[in-house]
Amino acid sequence: MLDKRGGAFLCVPNLSRRPRIGFPMGKTMLDIVRLKAGALLLSLMLAFVSAAQAQDGRSVAAGSEPYVYQVEQLQNGGGSGTPLELDTPMGMIETFMAAGAQGDWQAASAAMDFANVDADAATQQRLAAQLYDLVHRSISIDWVDLPDRPDAVDIIASDKNPMAGIARRSLRLATLDMDGRTVPVRLARVQEPGGEPVWVFSRQTVANVPQLYAIYGPTKFEQSLPPMLRKQAFWTLAWWEVIALPLILLLGALAAALTYRAIGHFRDRTDEDGKLFGVLQAVHLPVTLLAFAGTFALIRGTFFRLSGPVADLLNPLQLLLIIAAVIGILLSALDFLFDFATTRRTSKLEAPDNNEDRNFYTKMSAIRRILTAVLLLAGIGFLLVASNMSNTLGFSIIASAGVLGLVLVFAARKVLGDIMASVQIAFARTARIGDAVYYDGQWCYVEKIGFTHLRLRSWDERRVIAPVSAFTSESFENWTKQDPTIMMHVELELDHRADVDALRGPFREFIENDEDVIDPQDAACQVVGHRANAMIVRFMARAQDPKVGWKMHCRLREHMLAAAARLDAGEGNEPGPAFLPREREVRMDLAVEEEVG
Questions:
Q1: Which residues of 126-213 form beta strands (DSSP E)?
Q2: Contact between 97 and 135 (Cβ < 8 Å)
Q3: What is the pTM of this model?
Q4: ω into residue 24 within 30 of 0, thus cis?
């Protein structure tokens, strides 16, 4: 059994044990002291909170009273007989916007708490007009989530929502940026002694109205327009906005067209082999896009401030175009610099002993891809943060495409794998820029390692585009990985009666006199196979690199074929040593015998 004394719980001795005299000592007494100290600390905290609220002029209702801010006097406007419905948040916003649409600022001021503002009736009406303009132009109200109950309980919220089923006395309608910080536009439920609880714009929100209006209110150009053009046309657009929006888009398109033509004209007048031509070619489209987005943003920021959902849609799109243009310019410049450095030094990169430069440019290509990925991620992050898309209609549209995004990511998984494979190739240096590789039955030089493909240049100046996955999951030959020298070989099909020793003399003559054979002692002449109609003789010699070796290989084949033909023609009558296969002659003899027979 528990006995409550002094706010702490004391344990009654167990009668089944040996009886003790007095209070229990040790751990039980320590628990009593801790509980009393906790109760004292909690009382001090509650007293501090109550004192702070009393200093602010408000107190929180307790017990069975409505959940409101209690104030000594409600300092709102409107006078007696206000037509506003202030019992629920939705009713207050609806009637406030209706009074503002009719220009009844005296009635609209009833929905504002002027406790932090020293304002007369005229100032109250002016602040009401400014607040209406802010709500109408710069805030997208989510009417579905706006409670229509006096206690502001959200009855449609999920049970996982921590605020589901809980009464509230403060609601955040929206957030706006002001002086480098985000300020909320809040609704508060207040009650004065003997009065009914009402919902109004909070006193801090009303105090911030002049500064917010200076940022989000109409420009001087808009204020100079005739009253007829400033009237609402449809949706949240005024007539001047309906006229101005197509004009802004037209001016932006005109600026983009002039920029595109100017860059193209200047590029055509420069040397195609010069650096300036490459720079202009790289930044042509990104600069054009920047001209369109920049002109659109400049005109909007200087002369027009579009309102409501239209601004929520255009602001993210405008920022997206600017970021895309800037990233496009940076990536184009990066690609141009890298391509210029590699293509202008292709011959030096392919030099047999130039491993240092090949390693350097291969690492640079990997760094370029990493920088590209970082720039894209940084641009996306900046777009999400700078545009405050989580509070805009544009974000809702993007979020609604989440399922489509998952499908696209699933479909692009191979592309993402190729990007990682390209970085793996660059850092593992299995295929460096300038390396000679044997791929798909032909030898090529690696010219570029891209995100998803490698660009190879074949010996006859063709460009072979190979997927990077082929260089990570399949085997290939790298002829310059360690030693650029290469053993070239020529295989000839000779008659079984050919005297191979007779061919070693011409072969030795070739390897000792040809300037591209770097190690004559390493050369060899071997019979490596045979078939029913011929034997296969291989002649091998080493060259300093694949390019030189290919030319030497062709000369060696020509020399040995000529030697075999001379030896074959110099022999007398059959039967005797033969060097070239006789299959064709035997078939012709058989055909003649059949005709004669």
A1: 170-178, 181-191, 198-201
A2: yes
A3: 0.52
A4: no
Phi then psi for 60, rounded to 5 degrees?
-95, 130
Euclidean distance between CA atoms 577 and 22, whole angstroms: 129
CA distance 233 to 142: 22
When pLDDT is averaged across residues 57-81 and rounded to a whole number, the result is 69
Torsion sign (Cα): 99, 102, 105, 107: negative
- At residue 26 the predicted structure's pLDDT band, cuts being 50, 70 and 90, is very low
116 Cβ contact partners less than 8 Å away, ≥ 6 residues apart: 203, 204, 206, 207
Place of tokens 């990066």: 334
Residue 313 to residue 296: CA distance in whole angstroms: 14
- Whether residue 104 is predicted with pLDDT greater than 70 in this model: the reply is yes
Residue with tokens 């039967």: 575
| Arithmetic mean of pLDDT, 488-511 | 88
Nearest alpha-carbon partner for 520 in 503, 507, 537: 507
Task: For residue 478, name the pLDDT band (cuts at 50, 70, 90).
Answer: confident
Nearest one of 321, 313, 332, 317 to 290, comparing CA atoms: 321
Where would I find the H helices in 269-354?
275-302, 308-343, 346-349
Bridge partners, residue 182, by sequence: 177
d(CA 455, CA 448): 5
How far apart (Å, rounded) are the C-alpha atoms in residues 96 and 189?
Answer: 15
Higher pLDDT, 243 or 172: 172
The pLDDT assigned to 577 comes to 65
Tell me what percent of the residues of the chain surpass a pLDDT of 70.
Answer: 69
Q: What is the pLDDT of residue 297?
A: 82
Alpha-carbon gap, residue 544 to 353, rounded angstroms:
10
Fold of 486-583: Alpha-Beta Plaits (3.30.70)
Q: Across the chain, how many H-helices and E-strands are there?
A: 18, 17
Q: Judge whether residue 89 has pLDDT over 80.
A: yes
Element (H, E) at 406: helix 402-411
The residue whose two tokens read 């150009």 is: 221
Percent of the chain, pLDDT > 90?
10
Measured CA to CA, the distance from residue 412 to residue 422 in angstroms comes to: 16
The helix/strand/coil state of 23 is coil
Task: From 489, 480, 450, select the one nearest 468 (Cα to Cα).
Answer: 450
- Is-contact 325 259, C-beta < 8 A? no
Task: Determine phi and psi for 352, rounding to 5 degrees.
Answer: -60, -40
Tokens of 371: 């920088």
